[in-house]
Design brief:
- The protein has 105 residues and is an alpha+beta fold.
- 47% of the residues lie in helices and 23% in strands.
- Strands 1-4-3-2 form a 4-stranded mixed β-sheet, sandwiched between helices.
- Strand 2 (58-61) and strand 3 form a beta hairpin.
- Helix 1 (8-24) packs antiparallel against helix 2 (28-41).
- It is globular, with a radius of gyration of 13 Å.
């Protein structure tokens, strides 16, 4: 089992997703973080097996929402740096990940 930590920026990403989905349908907002936390919890077992397509960070795709979980992994601890909507402009995603990797927030 690996340790999993969620960075402050990733927590903010989850709140933004909650707000967005809650405006779409009542209750959907709460389903969003519940689902994403389930995906994040799975990193305790599977951290390190995901590809590293951008900024040298691993990317795990959510099973229920079009979001990706980007994390750094040192062999013991997975640090979630971002939880981003895959529908965003790829250039924007790269910029966000680059900035967060440099600051480890």
């Amino acid at each position: 089992m690996h340790d999993v930590r969620i960075g402050v920026s990733a927590e903010r990403d989850l709140l933004v997703g909650f707000d967005f989905y809650e405006t779409q349908a009542a209750g959907l907002g709460q389903y969003f973080p519940d689902s994403l936390f389930s995906d994040i919890d799975a990193l305790a077992l599977y951290a390190g097996v995901h590809p590293k397509p951008l900024a040298g960070l691993h990317r795990s795709l959510s099973r229920r929402f079009p979001f990706a979980i980007y994390y750094d992994f040192d062999g013991r601890t997975a640090i979630v740096l971002a939880v981003l909507d895959c529908r965003r402009n790829p250039r924007s995603i790269r910029g966000t990940l680059g900035a967060r990797r440099m600051h480890k927030k």
